[in-house]
Amino acid sequence: MTFKALRATKQADAITTGIVDLDEGDLMPGDVTDTVDYSSVNYKDALALAGSGGVIRTFPITPGIDLAGTVAESGFPGVVAGDRVVVNSWGLSQTHDGGYAQKARVPGEWLVKLPDRFSTKDATAIGTAGYTAMLCVLALEHGGLTPASGDVLVTGASGGVGSVSIALLSGLGYRVIASTGRVEEAGYLRELGAADVIDRGSLSEPGAGIASVRWAGAIDSVGSHTLANVLARTQYRGVVAACGLAQGNDLPGSVLPFILRNVTLAGIDSVNAPQEVRLEAWSRLARDLDLGKLARTTQVVGLSDVPRVAADLLAGRLRGRTVVDVNA
Hints:
It is built from 9 helices and 15 strands. The protein is α/β, with parallel strands linked by helices.
């Protein structure tokens, strides 16, 4: 039987996409075949479809760095037909077909069995962005931060990582400051749990190597001058988790926050995180994430809508999370 997939091809320097019919003979190698229910659109997906950053390394390919569904066939120990599973990142949309299809075949070691609390739709509403947000929270905790430590800043607050970060942190008792370039979204950010909303302009320009203290820690998905300014305003023994580069991949800052305030900069990689870290993150998401807040961050689109949504995401016209119903 055939199934539908959004395929990306490259001609010269241009990436084009279209919905095609494939069959199981077109699936890539792996020991688990999944019937896919949902995928999502992350910042990395938008970069991939735009041909930016060299995300896609093999053509043609089915993009989509997230997928959630039900196991149809398995040759992997501990995974059986009927298991509900999620896959985030690994090689999806880079060297291996991803989630923008009704079927997928992947290595079994990439799978995480879904906690009972989550539907497959919930899993992709969380997606790589939300799983990354949880990795950031774990890094703050590992560095010793608690709600009593002080305020925590979230940059790129109206995006996917930012939205889930605010929901998680506020639910854990932290007082959250949200930084956004879309101040009209202040109401949305406060609904997620932000206590204060600031304009990103106060962080996005070149600043001093060290400045007056404003927060105990931060989750930053922006990079460049924003991250440098975040570090400069972090308190003694504060912790900053860096997981993105929306402004740029440079860090034009100073060593002063590190050697004068003992600030910790924790790097967050969601692509190659080991399985035990993923399992911890998903376990904590099941415990700590308010599903009502998650629903407020989420819109659902069909497979044919993905290119448009990806372009809107890069243009800063979206907020929160976008789930892709691959059967719509």
